[in-house]
Amino acid sequence: MLRYALFRIALVFPLLIGLSGLVFLIGRVLPGDPVGLAAGPFASEEQRAAIAAEYGLDQSLPSQYWTYVTGLFEGDFGRSLMTRRPVAGDLAVYLPATLELVFFSLFLAALIGIPAGLIAGARRNQAPDMVIGVSTLTAMSMPPFFLGLMLQLAFAMALSWLPLSGRFPFILTPPPSVTGFLTIDSILAGRFDALRVALIHLTLPAITMALAPIATIARTMRASTIEVMQQDYVLNARAAGLSPRLILFKYVFRNAASATLTTIGLYVGWLLGSTVLVEKVFDWPGIGLYATNAILSQDFNPVIAVTLVIGVVFIISSLIVDLLYGVLNPKVTLK
Amino acid sequence: MRLNRRDMLLGTAASATALSFSGLGPVLAQSGNTIVIGNQGAQSHFDPHAGQDYPTSVLMRNIYDGLTDVQDMPPRVVPRLASEWTISEDGLTYVFKLNPNATFHDGTPVTAEAVKYSFNRIQAMARGNNWMIDGIVGPDSISVIDETTLEFQLVRPFAAFLSVLPWISVVNPAIIEANEGGDMGQTFLLNNTAGSGPFTVARFEPENLIEFQRNASYWREGAGNTDRVIWLYVRENTNQRLMLQRGEIHMAVDLTSDDIKALEGSPGVNLVVEPGDRTFTFKMNTAYGPTADVNLRKAIAYAFNYDEMLRVSGYAHLMQGPLPQSFLGHDADLEVPRMDLEKAREYLAMTEWPEGGLSLDCVYVVGLEQERLWSLVLLDSLRALNIEVNIIAATWPDMVAMSTSPETFPAFFNVYLGVSYADPDVIAFAGYHSSRNGSWQNPVYSNPEVDALIEAARSEVDEAARVELYKQVQAKIVEDAPDIFGVIESAKVGLRDNVQGYSFTPIIVQAVDFFPLSVV
Q: CB of B402 within 8 A of CB of B365?
């Protein structure tokens, strides 16, 4: 298993080189004048040339790419053309905010989706299955930004139970940043007041993001449960007089979970790429908005950096999913 | 300069707890003399010479000082670092006397040397607002007469000189030189300041907030009672509006017309809706393609449905020619095209396309809903002339690139022109002088007569003579019809009713002057 994991991790590098090359090329061949935009409307030719030189944009394409890739190995993602700040520093701020939201949403989704799917599968065509089926269909067809606005109106404006937006109130002191995840940092610092505040702020955006995955997870889990329930060994277990509860949780769940695990793994990448609307609605200082703004101003370095980071997170999450197969089901061997 | 977060926490713990645990309403109203301003101008640096966007202007107004200041409506120039000045008759020599009480944040006096250093720095960097003084202030223009007196010998007379000075900030040479870093301190100023202004920076979280703290030893009179201003980046307009309603912020500077409608009558909220600080026009391609024919442009200008444009604009008023109505030199008697299909057809008959039957591209900035609506009004208007309009959404960098040559420039180009200083020159020169060809403000329009008039007007010292010159500029431009003159959207600011001391100035409206603000 260790060899398998190392092999998969080694695969990351060629993938990253390919990914960076592709995004780099797309960024460079796009029409548009990012230097002109950064230089401002009154810039002279010399000023434009100076900015192009400052960012190495006057070099040949291969030489620009080489500089970029060698920089990557030193953790240097270059500087943003618009803000002039180092991209690595920006990522360190925005990435944890988005990851925290994505992981928290997926945690919520799994926590609700898996039991719901299991129950629906076990009680196929009975009342719980119907209720879960209708709810998941509704959840899947609800656009997240609309749901976000509705939740804000209900829980922040009308009921005043939860904050409207933001990640942490600016008048409070956040815990010292270690991981960048406010929840984890609060626990590390023993600041349970801050943990509570962080969780309260996570609630509405996480519910908004979790709804679609809850539905998908529940549906996948339901389908696998039904399939597993029809296996001979389940019939056998039933004939042997094992309690339905034991059969469901010990035998059915473990076998049915692997397809669901794949779904969850895929959602990590999907959610990372689709946080932008939720980030905007809830004023979440995350990577989605950062990337969108960079794309609109053709600010290449942040765009490439975000693409690479999402790529890496995606690869790592699918690796973890693969490793979990082995843990969950001893029949699966990884080579 | 850093504020201890724990100190701040102690002062606001009670209200903070209320905010975070229940999310309840007007919390900040009780948190002492702090004002929170919601905005969409994320700040990324503290260098007043490196930017010209409104977040950078916030720095210029609050962390730094310029020689002069601009205030009120209509805007007027008032003293700031310079307490008095004299101007020679030929308009070439300006002598400024600095306020002897002015000091930088480190306590050292603001000297004439420091002013000279700052002008030299922005010129050497050639960024930010340097364009305002480019070709006006030469490399040897400034001489220091004594500690607090300096003389500008301008390259040529520039009537708007006092109006641009608020936007050329003075920096502390000692701090910049100590942190020069091979780039004139630009890297240093990404996270630090070097000013003399009424506020310092206590906390900076990029793309989230800046916490400004009042400079207790500031030298100007008329300060409000706020100790602290939190400049909060709010990504979504609606949130800005809701936060203002809930009292989570005291001011919102990026409200839309819909927000204003929704806020009307909200208890505790005051609204300021005044003529704004940018014009909107459709620039036409006067140099290439069908619209190079002035008669076609006039036909279009007369076919355009201005009333419908105004209707979809929310809070706005129609432009009457190229200059904003509130500006010096605007000609109130100027006749501009208004929708008149008969006239439009007359002009069309003089073109190669008397029956229409052509298709023209109209490009707007992707995501700017207002521009899309106006483009639709254009599309609908030109149907009457049998002209098809092909609406294209493009990213702003693409549009900047299109502006570089007449061949790539579309028939119609949606463009806002910001009023960055209080003088008609800002619109006339940037928007209609041919030296700006190739830039997005005036990509193609060129008329030597208009150029000469604009140059004469910016050099003219006598105000009445200037007004007369701008009258001619406006008439000539209307005659050439390079634009469909559109609207000036109203500036929209929302304030809680416990905020006092705010006075509206139509120059870079979002860059609020914190100095006189009080909270009661």
A: no
Which of residues 371 through 400 in chain B touch A, CB cutoff 8 A? 395-398, 400
Subunit contact B44:A85, Cβ cutoff 8 A? yes
Closest Cβ–Cβ partner in B36, B126, B205 for A47: B126
Pick from A84, A164, A201: CB nearest B239? A164
Contact (CB, 8 A) for A163 and A156:
yes
> Where does the pLDDT of residue B118 fall: very low under 50, low under 70, confident under 90, or very high at 90 and above?
very high
* Residue of B46, B49, B232, B400 for testing the chain A interface, max A β-carbons within 10 Å: B400
Query: What residues of chain A lie within 8 A of the CB of B12, using their CB?
Result: 171
Mean pLDDT, rounded, for A164-168: 85
Residue B376 has pLDDT above 90, yes or no: yes
Share of chain B above pLDDT 70, in %: 94
With H, G, I as helix, E, B as strand and everything else as coil, classify residue B209. Answer: strand
Query: Hey, where are the domains in chain A?
Result: 90-286
pLDDT digits (tens, 9 = 90+) for A6-31: 887 787 788 878 888 888 888 777 77
The yes-or-no verdict on residue B412 having pLDDT over 90 is yes
Instruction: Tell me whether strands B499-500 and B316-318 are parallel, antiparallel or unpaired.
Output: unpaired
Q: Which residues in chain A touch residue B29, judged by CB atoms under 8 angstroms apart?
A: none
The CATH number, out of the four listed (3.30.2350.10, 3.40.1160.10, 3.40.50.300, 1.10.3720.10), of the domain defined by the range A90-286: 1.10.3720.10
Question: Given the structure tokens 């200008």, which residue do they identify?
Answer: B301
Quick check: B230 contacting A, CB < 8 Å?
yes
Query: Which three-class secondary structure string do you get for chain A?
Result: CHHHHHHHHHHHHHHHHHHHHHHHHHHHHCCCCHHHHHHCCCCCHHHHHHHHHHCCCCCCHHHHHHHHHHHHHCCCCCECCCCCCEHHHHHHHHHHHHHHHHHHHHHHHHHHHHHHHHHHHHCCCCHHHHHHHHHHHHHHCCCHHHHHHHHHHHHHHHCCCCCCCCCCCCCCCCCCCCCCCHHHHHHHCCCHHHHHHHHHHHHHHHHHHHHHHHHHHHHHHHHHHHHHHCCHHHHHHHHCCCCHHHHHHHHHHHHHHHHHHHHHHHHHHHHHHCCHHHHHHCCCCCHHHHHHHHHHCCCHHHHHHHHHHHHHHHHHHHHHHHHHHHHHCCCCCCC
Q: Could B439 and A41 be called an inter-chain contact, meaning their C-beta atoms sit closer than 8 Å?
A: yes
In this predicted model, what pLDDT tens digit does every residue of B323-340 receive, in sequence order?
A: 998 888 999 999 999 999
pLDDT at B371 over 90: yes
Residue B346 belongs to what H/E stretch? Answer: helix B341-349
Residue of B206, B202, B259 lying closest to B227 (CA atoms): B202
**Residue B279 · residue B317 · CB < 8 Å:** no
pLDDT digits 0-9 by tens, A261-284: 888 888 888 888 778 888 888 888
Q: What confidence score (pLDDT) does residue B444 get?
A: 95
| Residues of A in Cβ contact (< 8 Å) with B248 | 164
pLDDT digits (tens, 9 = 90+) for B287-319: 999 999 999 999 999 999 999 999 999 899 999
Question: Tokens 């619109």 — which residue?
Answer: B427
What interface predicted TM-score (ipTM) does this complex get? 0.72
Distance CA A31, CA B206 (A): 29
Helix-helix angle A253-273:A87-122, to 10 degrees: 150
Nearest to A281 among B209, B236, B397 (CB): B236
**What DSSP character marks residue B170?**
B
